[in-house]
Design goal:
Strand content: 15-25%
Structural class: alpha/beta
Largest sheet: 8 strands, mixed
Strand order of the largest sheet: 3-2-1-4-5-6-12-9
CATH topology: Inosine-uridine Nucleoside N-ribohydrolase, Chain A
Low-confidence stretches: none
CATH class: Alpha Beta
Number of helices: 12
Radius of gyration: 18 Å
Mean pLDDT: 97
Bound molecules: alpha-D-ribofuranose, calcium ion
Order of helices and strands: EHEHEHHEHEHHEHEHHEHEEEEH
Number of strands: 12
Number of domains: 1
Oligomer: single chain
Helix content: 25-40%
Shape: globular
């Protein structure tokens, strides 16, 4: 089996950290690098958190720092009530030993895609700013990637920031609009499926009790995120594995059912950042419409800690 080369773009974030662990621990994937963006926290914090998580996992995968702000908006508030003050929930904070690459995220993406024509999978689990900037700088990469898997959007269910919008798309709707119009081969892993992938608190306690220091580290991180879900969605019984599902889809596409659709992004008005299906339009996205949540959860748990 040849491992699939991927670049994972993150706003690390608790579920981003779980996605990093899942990717690094999966032999089907060859993680060429992480690229970072603002989103759950500032890009500086996302870069630092990504380096910390990699260090905990014993990985020396490179990290390239990316966008500080959306393309045309100014972001000043971050959801620290969801991902914690530092972005890694209740996990102990440490200074990472490594530094990010000198290469900016956008250049790292372009260089890697051009060095491995037709082979690289790009996985985006934060706002799409780095990807929009990459296709603006080098539109030719749209035809040179293997696939682009995006955690974002809510096509047939309500959003999680507004009734219409999901957080990653809402953080930079203009970037999402550019990406969906770019011709990139996109698979969209939205709230339609990720809100069905719940990590129950009981499974996290198994990490705490049986998986040593690493298990306790990820349990401290994830318990904070589960508390947010319990407050926001009383009785939900766990936290959504948004970003890990995007990794799961790359490893094993049979976790989900896809439908080809024309997706457009609203960039103004009450429905700002809605990812709406345009019936009859030329399809531009493969949208995940169903998920085998139990099979995915067991696979995720078998790999992460
Ligand atoms: O809406 C869920 C997404 O928003 C996830 O990527 C999470 O990490 C946050 O960025
Ligand atoms: Ca994320």
């Amino acid at each position: 089996m040849t491992a699939k080369p991927i670049i994972l773009d993150v706003d690390t974030g608790v579920d981003d950290a779980l996605a990093i662990a899942y990717a690094i621990r999966s032999p089907e994937l060859d993680v060429l690098g992480l690229t970072t963006t603002f989103g759950n926290i500032t890009v500086k914090e996302a870069t630092r958190n990504s380096l910390i998580v990699l260090e905990k996992l014993g990985s020396d995968v490179p990290v390239a720092s990316g966008a500080e702000q959306p393309l045309r908006r100014v972001k000043t508030d971050y959801p620290r009530h969801i991902h914690g003050e530092h972005g890694l929930g209740g996990a102990e904070w440490v200074e990472p030993k490594r530094k990010p690459l000198p290469t900016p995220a956008v250049d790292f993406i372009i260089e890697q895609v051009r060095a491995r024509e037709g082979q690289v999978t790009l996985v985006f689990v934060g706002p799409l700013t780095n990807l929009a900037l990459a296709v603006q700088k080098d539109p030719g990469i749209a035809g040179l990637v293997d696939q682009v898997v995006i955690m974002g959007g809510a096509v047939r269910r309500r959003g999680n920031v507004t009734p219409y919008a999901e957080a990653n798309i809402y953080s930079d709707p203009e970037a999402a609009d550019i990406v969906f119009r770019s011709g990139l081969p996109i698979t969209l892993v939205g709230l339609d499926v990720t809100m069905r992938t719940l990590l129950p608190s009981s499974r996290v306690q198994v990490w705490r009790e049986r998986s040593g220091e690493l298990g306790r580290y990820f349990a401290d991180m994830t318990d904070f995120y589960i508390d947010f879900y319990e407050k926001g969605y009383p009785g939900i019984g766990g936290c959504a594995l948004h970003d890990p599902l995007a990794i799961g889809v790359v490893i094993d596409p049979s976790f989900v059912t896809l439908e080809r659709m024309r997706i457009v992004v609203d960039t103004e008005g009450e429905t700002l950042a809605r990812t709406a299906e345009q019936p009859g339009g030329e399809p531009n996205v493969s949208v995940c419409v169903d998920v085998q949540e139990e099979r995915f959860l067991e696979h995720f748990l078998s790999r992460v800690i």
